[in-house]
Amino acid sequence: DAKARGRGCYQLYRKELTEYVHGRLLLDADLRKAIINHEFELHYQPVIDLGTNQVASAEALIRWNHPQRGRVAPDEFIPYAQESALILPIGNWVINEACRQLAQWKAQGFNINMSINISARQFMQLDLVQQFEQTLEKYALRGEQITLEITEQMFLENTEHNLKQICELKNRGIKISLDDFGIGYSSLSYILRFAPQYLKIDRSFVSLIGTGKEHDEMVNAIIGLNKIIPMHIVGEGIEEEHQRYFLYSRGCDFGQGYFFSRPLPATQFLQFLQTRATTESQPS
Ligand code: C2E
Ligand code: MG
Ligand code: MG
Ligand code: MG
């Protein structure tokens, strides 16, 4: 009886494992094709200066237009790409495309910066710094116009190597932003050593604003980190006015979220910039 059940479980396990492996092989093959067939696209979400209400920068967020499955969200393929090293060619494409787009918006008269999400694995590339140098030169951009969004994952493995890369990128003016802060493994000593210029409060904390004194105090405490380490605080996932107001009044410098705008295709992002520029210049 127990033996039969055991075997049943084993068979079930075999079946799931086979499906799992098969699924990953499909994903792997499809991702390789996606690069060749230009199935990736970047959407851009505005980052708003909460003090002036102006668009400070755009965060580039990858989208995959799969020929059969339609739009695939990054959470469905970026983790796999990170494990399989496919993140390297995908990440290189993102860096080039985001810089190309930024140069175009600059040429159209919009003085904004670009934030690019970078995986820990990309920092293992020995020529990452060189790649940025070449791309900046190709599009006549300055390092100061680029911010790299990293996660706490960067602290855990190859810490010394990552620190060295970050130091070299900073020497070229490129800024560092610590993404999804509060849900990972940060310790203040790591933040001190990496010294990011921006810290993004994870949206799970922003969504808790106004739901309890302890939640509000927690967000307050995160913002207060800028008194210990000089950095700008960015609130992620702002969906409601009261969240924006809370963050702004507690000293959070920048905000991002559906309250301002969802991530937009490049043409719609340009319209967003144009509309805001017009509104801003009219007397109120
Ligand atoms: P992230 O960098 O933390 O990006 C923020 C995510 O929150 C985005 O999801 C964005 O669409 C979503 N978001 C923004 N505002 C709101 C809001 O008000 N409410 C809600 N519910 N969500 C909001 P997305 O685009 O699906 O990206 C998910 C994650 O995938 C990103 O998190 C980032 O870690 C990763 N990712 C995206 N593009 C790239 C890329 O080019 N390279 C790498 N390495 N990772 C990327
Ligand atoms: Mg990000
Ligand atoms: Mg984030
Ligand atoms: Mg995230």
UniProtKB/TrEMBL annotation:
Name by which UniProt lists this protein: Two-component system response regulator
Species of provenance: Cellvibrio mixtus
Domain (EAL) ranges: 24-277
Covered range of the whole protein: 555 to 838 of 838
Signal peptide range: none
Superkingdom as given in the UniProt entry: Bacteria
